Amino acid sequence: MTYVLQQLINAIQLGSIYALIALGYSMVYGVLRFINFAHGDIFMVGAFLSYFAALLIRRLAGSAGIPNALIFLGSMLLAMLGTALVALSIEKIAYRPLRKYRLSVVITALGMGVFLEHMTLVIVGPWRISFQPLISEKVHKVAGVSISTTQLVIIFVSILLMLILEFIVRQTKQGMAMRAISYDREAVPLMGVNVDHIVTLTFAIASCLAAAGGLLYAHAYPIIEPYMGIMVGWKAFISAVVGGIGVIRGAMLGGYILGFVEIAAGAIFPSRMRDLISFVVLMLVLLAKPTGIFGLPLRQKV
Prior knowledge:
Strand 2 and strand 3 (145-148) form a beta hairpin. 72% of the residues lie in helices and 4% in strands. The chain has ten helices and four strands; from the N terminus they run ααααβββαααβααα. It has 302 residues and is mostly helical. The strands form two sheets. A two-stranded antiparallel ribbon has the order 1-4.
C-alpha cells in the first residue's frame, strides 16, 4: 500500500506539469482552432529563461543572502515575462498574417518550434546544462510515504496556477470573451470584442503556464537542453487531446491521466517500455472517445 501511495504522489507531480503545458495547447486551440506546435519549445524557452533568471538574481544579490523562495518566485516571474514576449512576438509576426490559412499557420507553428530549438542551440550550445535547485530539498515522511519539498512545491504551484486560470476564464470579461470566441468567432466582433486583443491575451497566458511548467520540470528533472521541449510537448499535446482539446478542465484531466499512466507503466514494466505503453493506453482512450473525455463533436453549418 505504501508503494502504491508513493507512486500516486509521483504521478500527481508529473501530471501537474503535463497539465500546465497541456492548458496552453487547449487555450490556443479553443480560441483560434489551430494547434500551436511551437508550444513545447516555448516550455523549453521557459526552462532556460528561469535558469538564467536565477543566475541573474543570485549575481545581483551578491552576498545579501536572498531566501530561496524569493529566488524561485523571481525566476518564475521573469521566465513568464520572457516567454510571454517570445510567444507574443511569434503570434504577431508569424501567426497573425496567416490566421485565415489553417494549413499554412500549422506549418508555420512547426517551423517556429524548429527555429526556437536552433536559436537556443546557437545561444547556449549543444550541451546539457545542470539546473541548480532553487528550493531547499527536504524529504517529509507521512504514513511511510516520502514527499519531497520539490514535489510539494510542484503540486502546490500547479494547482494554484490552474485555479487562477479557472478564475480568469470563468469570472472575468476577458475570460468570457475567450469562451465566446471558442463558440462563435464570427459573431463576437459584432458585440464590440477586440478579437486580436483576446488572442494576444490567450497566447500570453498560455506561454506563462508553459514557463511555469518549464521551471517546475527543471526542478524535478534537473537537466535542461534545447530539445527538451519536443517529447514533453508531444505528451502535453496528447494530454490535451485525450481530455478534449479546447476544454480547459479536459486539458487538466488529460495531464493527470498521462502522469498516472506513465508512472504506473514505469512501475509495472521495464522503464524503456513506459512511453510505448503510455501512448498505447492513450490511443485506446481516443478510440473509445475520439473527441476526448470532455470534448464534443464540432458541428459545422452547411
